[in-house]
């Protein structure tokens, strides 16, 4: 998508080589990227930036000092970060409870390390474009799904969404709802289409935001 002014992205990563690679890759894609080696250093970078000027934050979960999970709420509250800015967490391994903790803290997505830079690029473009689409449609900041779309969900789709929000897998959802795994996958596919999302993490974040999980 076209960007007349470079969007600012903050990268908080304690591995120096990867942090440098990440910043260089983002700048090559046309973003203005800032690197920080810790949560505290990331907050210091934000203090030097104008209000509402950071469009996205990429943050490692395992950091010296403040952890990535502890950083999420601070990032969300910082005046330099747009209220609707995506927060992407990087992690070498994520379990269900870790993922839910991050989403409840306000993170938007997880990317597994080592990070596939092409996947990172696509994730960024999709999230930032979705936010722009919702802004133009007049949707409230921080909610990427309009009320009209939510009203289109069937009762069963809403039930599946709620269980995805609890981190449940297809087999568990099938048992809870007494339906087949194939049927769960069909409902999940339909949810992805209606909500314009591409992953279970997206679905879980939406469910948590709507207090379904």
TrEMBL record:
Keywords: DNA-binding, Phosphoprotein. The keyword Phosphoprotein applies. Pfam families: GerE, Response_reg. GO terms for molecular function: DNA binding. It comes from the Bacteria. CDD domains: LuxR_C_like, REC_OmpR. InterPro entries: CheY-like_superfamily (IPR011006), Sig_transdc_resp-reg_C-effctor (IPR016032), Sig_transdc_resp-reg_receiver (IPR001789), Tscrpt_reg_LuxR_C (IPR000792), WalR-like (IPR039420), WH-like_DNA-bd_sf (IPR036388). The modification 4-aspartylphosphate is found at residue 60. One of its GO terms (biological process) is phosphorelay signal transduction system. Residues 8-128 form the Response regulatory domain. Residues 146-211 form the HTH luxR-type domain. This is DNA-binding response regulator.
